[in-house]
Amino acid sequence: MTSQTITAGNPVLRVPPASPAVAAAYFGASLAFHADVSDVAAALEGDGDPGFVVVDSRSTASWDQGHVPGAVHLPTALVAEQAAGLLDPAVPVVTYCWGPGCNGATRAALALAELGYQVKEMLGGFEYWAREGLVFETWEGPERRTADPLTAPVDADDCGC
After folding, report:
1. Measured CA distances, 109 to 15, 82, 91, 140, 161 (Å)
2. Is 124 helix (H, G, I), strand (E, B) or coil?
3. Residue 55, φ and ψ in degrees, nearest 5
4. What is the pTM of this model?
5. Are the CB atoms for 99 and 121 separated by under 8 Å?
6. Which residue, among 92, 88, 90, 119, has the nearest Cα to 106 in the 3D structure?
């Protein structure tokens, strides 16, 4: 049996993996564009200035339901009009929206980058912020949900990633 015969019936290897050099370039670039919820939370909880500002790109109704503490509310549709009055161009921005099924944070990141801001997108969005059991703010005050064991380790400080 040849390597070609094995990969022909294998949907994972039907398209072979990239070379290690190409993969390293791709994954390195990905990290320049994305941050995960746990890393954002750890940076915000640390001592001093995290070195970035978090932007919630969702609607006001969504913001009122819950948002990352300390985030700036800047709906995607208003980025061009309001970014200069809310954000310092010298400070990197991390955008988020509802979750993995929403590309609002991607659209907000694009709009901010086109205005000259350094920007990353928070993978998982608000959904994973809440699912990981992190405190969030609502129009009624702070809330915290029990961590989903599928997204956050039980009885551990971090996932070890």
Report:
1. 30, 14, 14, 28, 25
2. coil
3. -120, 125
4. 0.88
5. no
6. 119
